[in-house]
Design goal:
The complex is a heterodimer. Chain A is an alpha+beta fold. Chain A is about 35% helix and about 15% strand. In chain A, α2 (about 95-100) packs across α5 (about 150-165), α3 packs across α4 (about 130-140) and α4 crosses α5 (about 150-165). In chain B, the strands form 4 sheets. In chain B, strands 4-5-10-6-7 form a 5-stranded antiparallel β-sheet. Classes of the chains: A alpha+beta, B alpha+beta. The interface of A and B includes residues 3 and 5 of A.
Chain lengths: ~170, ~280
């Protein structure tokens, strides 16, 4: 593998929301900036850029991760999912998103995409996750509207729906 | 905030990585999960000329039992060790420390060895390694060496790592039956860096109390087995012997208070677990 020069852009190929992407990025470009500025997916928000606030959280290979603490070059060959992938149709909210709306989990909405990506990963890994799991995942996110209580309720409601779907006769 | 520019290299073999690090000298740095290094790059506290990404080197991706040690390679992410099926049996101190260690979102990417290499004085993994009496395997093109954790951490984010060297693995002593382990921490938010973190081991040789977040590096104190009314005096002496300082997170006095209360709790819990 040759040394990739700092002054030039270099190819980055990865899967983004189910599609193969071939982008170009300088070595120093963060994944958050690649998504927003090069690929136009502005659903991923950028807050603190040192890994504290969690606004930029996306899923890399199914796990929630900070896009601002990941260099674009580090995701070569990975599977990246952003908030844009949650709903298959722009007119329809995913069950988790719908629960956020019903339970007033949104507030100003700036931290929401990151929180959705963390909770979506949690619900996929542990279907019907409980309050403690949800709080643990939320601890990696700062909501300056302090809307945590309603966010927890929304996530619990989504988990409950998921439980019912999995066991329709229970 | 954005990183300054750097060259990037993704070696395909360990030999290639070591050759590049040897050429790069002090200008080259290893990147693994990046959860400690990328914030430093973003804030431009680190400005390496070259980053060497070691995450594609399969040989570094291993968790193994070797004699009475658990060996964790430089490519192992924190979440992988956290999910390792033997963690609770073989490394109960780490099992207790993991919930405090960053967040789910950073443990998914960050590596165990990366946190050790970063040597933040309040970080949980360096504290755990030191308290257990573990060691670090370092490798350069010319030599391999093994350094005890106590000699590896030399100051605030400073280690014994030399130019051209990288961490190949860390060695955690495996838990012995009849030993007790405990971990406690106080931070501003669950998962943030500790204001004070304490780790304790109770075994045949007595007690060991590790403390992070107070001095410029984690410290460990051996103690004899104590009975209930001896804890306070022992911990008070430790609290005053540490070089506690005021900063924006807490005063020196508050830190000493935390050392007393958390230290007492962790030592008692470790002693209880032993019984």
């Amino acid at each position: 593998m040759p040394r990739m020069n700092a002054a030039r852009k270099h190819p980055v190929d990865f899967t983004l929301n189910g599609r193969t992407v071939l982008a170009e990025a300088e070595n120093r470009m963060l994944l958050s900036d690649l998504l927003r500025h090069e690929l136009g997916l502005t659903g991923t928000h950028v807050g603190c850029e040192h890994g504290v606030c969690g606004a930029c959280t996306v899923q890399i290979d199914g796990k929630p991760a900070r896009a601002c603490l990941t260099l674009a070059q580090q995701v070569r060959g990975s599977d990246v999912r952003t908030v844009e992938a949650l709903s298959p149709d722009p007119a329809v909210l995913s069950p988790l998103q719908a629960a956020f709306r019903r339970h007033h989990g949104l507030q100003c909405g700036f931290c929401t995409p990151g929180i959705l990506m963390s909770l979506d990963a949690l619900l996929r890994e542990r279907p019907g996750a409980g309050r403690e799991d949800i709080r643990e995942h939320l601890s990696g996110h700062l909501c300056r509207c302090t809307g945590y209580a309603t966010i927890v309720e929304a996530a619990l409601a989504a988990a409950e729906e998921q439980r019912k779907e999995e066991k329709p006769n229970a | 905030m954005k990183p300054a520019s750097f060259d990037f290299l993704c070696p395909e073999t360990l030999e290639e990585a070591l050759a590049v690090l040897a050429e790069g000298g002090g200008e080259a740095r290893v990147i693994a999960g990046g959860q400690s290094l990328v914030p430093m790059l973003n804030m431009r506290l680190a400005r390496p000329a070259l980053l060497v990404d070691i995450m594609r080197l399969e040989v570094l991706h291993r968790i193994e039992t070797s004699g009475d040690e658990i060996v964790v390679g430089a490519g192992v992410r924190q979440a992988e060790l956290e999910a390792w099926p033997s963690l609770l049996r073989d490394l109960p101190l780490l099992a207790a420390a993991f919930p405090w260690l960053g967040h789910v979102q950073t443990r998914a990417r960050g590596t165990v060895c990366g946190s050790i290499a970063h040597a933040d004085p309040s970080a949980e993994l360096p504290l755990s390694l030191l308290t257990l009496g573990g060691a670090v395997s370092l490798r350069s093109r010319k030599q391999k060496r093994r350094v005890k954790a106590n000699d590896f951490f030399i100051g605030m984010m400073a280690t014994d790592l030399a130019e051209g060297e990288m961490i190949e693995a860390v060695h955690f002593p495996k838990a012995r039956p009849g030993s007790g382990y405990a971990f406690r921490e106080v931070g501003r938010r669950h998962g943030d860096f500790a204001i004070v973190a304490c780790a304790a081991v109770a075994d045949d040789s007595g007690l060991r109390l590790g403390i992070a977040g107070v001095d410029d590096r984690p410290r460990v104190f051996p103690l004899p087995a104590l009975n209930d009314d001896q804890f306070d005096d022992a911990i008070n002496d430790i609290a005053w012997s540490l070089n506690a300082r005021d900063d924006i997170h807490a005063s020196a006095r508050y830190r000493r208070e935390l050392v007393r209360s958390l230290g007492r709790e962790t030592l008692k819990e470790a002693s209880r677990c032993r019984a």
